[in-house]
From TrEMBL:
This is tRNA-specific adenosine deaminase 2. GO terms for biological process: tRNA wobble adenosine to inosine editing. Keywords: Hydrolase, Metal-binding, tRNA processing, Zinc. It catalyses: adenosine(34) in tRNA + H2O + H(+) = inosine(34) in tRNA + NH4(+). Its EC number is 3.5.4.33. Homodimer. The keyword Phosphoprotein does not apply. GO terms for molecular function: tRNA-specific adenosine-34 deaminase activity; zinc ion binding.
Length: 151
């Protein structure tokens, strides 16, 4: 599975995620391109501020492979990771991140900060941004429009 195909899976996950949470989907691929784990935002479901899609997927992948080091994996996520998720990605030693939509308010991979590509970072990684960006952004725009209308 390539990054675009994985992003389509992440979008589908986000579309079917927990009803009252921001629709973000994440997929972790192994070096063969097989899906090892997936995640969606589960903050509202579990009342857990750390239950972002990326963290959920990283936890599942580590459990699946029996190691916290995901140093031969790729993380594909519909939204640019925040600082917490960028830190978790770095700690998991994930070498390649692919994301769809930019997060101009809290993004930590180029929008507001660039945690993962900071020259002081211990682990270097490749980042591919803007994969199916329009589709990913539309998910978020629709969600927040409905939230505003409900108030």
């Amino acid at each position: 599975m390539n990054s675009t195909e994985a992003m389509k899976v992440a979008i589908e996950l986000a579309m079917n995620s927990h009803v009252n949470d921001v629709p973000v989907g994440a997929v972790i691929l192994n070096s063969s391109g097989d899906i090892v784990a997936t995640g969606t935002n589960e903050r509202e479901l579990h009342k857990d501020p750390s239950a972002h899609a990326e963290v959920v997927a990283i936890r599942k992948a580590a459990q699946e492979i029996g190691d916290w080091r995901l140093d031969s994996h790729t993380l594909v996520v519909t939204l640019e990771p925040c600082a917490m998720c960028a830190g978790a990605i770095a700690q998991a030693r994930i070498p390649h991140l692919v994301f769809g939509a930019w997060d101009k308010k809290a993004g930590a991979v180029g929008s507001v900060w660039d945690v993962l590509r900071d020259p002081r970072a211990l682990h270097k990684m490749d980042v591919t941004s803007g994969v199916l960006e329009v589709e990913c952004a539309q998910l978020l725009t629709s969600f927040f429009r409905k939230e505003r209308e409900a108030k």
